[in-house]
Amino acid sequence: MKTFTDLRKEQSWLVVSSLVVIAIFTIGVVLLYARSVLIPFVLAVFISLLISPILDYQILRLKIPRILAVVITLIIVLLILGVLFLFVSQAIQSVVSTAGRYSNSFVNLVKLGLERLKDWGVSPNQEEIVTTLQQRIPGLITNASGTVFGFVSDIFLVSIFVIFLLIGRNSRVIRKGIYADIYGQVCRYVTIKAIVSTVTGFLVWAVLALFGLELASVFGILAFLLNFIPSIGSIVATLLPIPIAVAQFQNPWLIALVVSIPGAIQIIIGNGIEPKLMGKGLHLHPVTILLALSFWGFLWGIPGMFLAVPMTAVVRIILMQLDTLKPIGNLLAGSLPESK
Questions:
Q1: Is a pLDDT exceeding 60 seen at residue 1?
Q2: Once rounded to an integer, what is the mean pLDDT over residues 124-146?
Q3: pTM value?
Q4: 3-state secondary structure at position 67
């Protein structure tokens, strides 16, 4: 039988849980309506975390004046963002320019498939299906390209935020407490993820280019970007070349190699090399990561999925600093309230 103290603890836990749910809902509404400003700002925060060691090294080790060090760091940032923007722009142009040609290839493949179905006794409306594909495929490709281009076009606003974040940074301050935890874990995660994603994207491009697949550079860039989305991103990056491979090669063995080799690269790097580099990581359970992807993806779309893991890690670090909310922080790490 429960004692009065146990009942009080249970009631307190229910009250705290209810308040947390209400707070999450309220914060979610704010994040949803302020996403046009918050997304570039959060991106700028993580970029500044990634490049802040460069600024600190110039000031503390090379003894370069602060203003000059900030200018050099900003030039490096703008060069990196400019190169990324250039690659993505070229990828978008390549996709748009080949959309019509490959849409015709897809339509021809669908026609062959419908003819096969007729041989098996199935008689779908071929003209309606073909007409729908001819109308929608180029539009889908163009809309997807427009979404990516709109995301990349926010680079200007991100750059403004990065400039002010770097100017306001004090490299000589020794960070302690919660800020040190957030800075250490998130900075390590972002740095390692950027390096691993770059290697993954390069290897995927090299393999696809070796097979002579058109748009190999596009799929390499997508592999680099999607690698920032845990689990789901690598699967999507592996499956994306299939339509182009089917339309270009029409050879089952080549198509299988185009899918399996980049898939093997994703598995080896994502499940073998990356966990060793991450070490303890961000202390987030795989289910927590999937829920975070769904939550932030619902609020902020694709950019939210890119930022889901580090932002959830920051939330967990903050929760672990409060005794009342520690059970929720442990739950995010996969430890149930009853476990010790």
A1: no
A2: 51
A3: 0.73
A4: helix
